[in-house]
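Allow me, if you will, to draw on your knowledge of protein folds for a short while. Thank you for your consideration; the sequence and its tokens are set out here:
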Amino acid sequence: MRKIFIDCGSNIGKVLERAIRTRSEFEFFAFEPNADLIPTISTRIEKYPDARVEVYNKAVWTQNNGLSFFVGHPETSSVMPGHRVPFIYGKQLDYANPQHVESIDFSQWILNNFDLSDHIVIKMDIEGAEYPVLEKMIEDGSIYYINKLYVEWHWYKIGGVSEARHKELMARLEWSTRLKRHYAWNALNYFAA
């Protein structure tokens, strides 16, 4: 059995670094589509030369063919049109000038790289993309590979994601027989695996 920690939407790597520091027996995978943040993540993980870490400059998504990526403040971004960021950042996302980023079919990546016997913990902070990604994981069964799931939910920040859709997804996650726990997570707090 492998122990796996996957950081979806790694941003500047704070949560990833804490996981590496406290979970040395895990393998670590980080996904961050904002290329400007990859050097910061790399600097953080260089402090742990024995850690098994792979960093992907890709958006977690439902397909592998890339997508538009919207950036505002250096640490805020989204692949979801209509996303609003908190006023503390002072700058909204620039929808007029999208960047094209590589994406990964996350559920297929899970199915291709792991076994049901693995212990998998996911932190997911992907600015609204959690809805299509998790819905696909439920549909194709990859959700059953996950033991713990920490999600920062963005339904109230995204146009087109209703509270009803959010509640339906939460209920569907409750039905997952393998998923032992799923938690609402806030980027201002650290995860506890």
Remarks:
- The two ends are 17 Å apart (CA to CA).
- DSSP finds five helices and eleven strands in the chain.
- The longest strand covers residues 3-8.
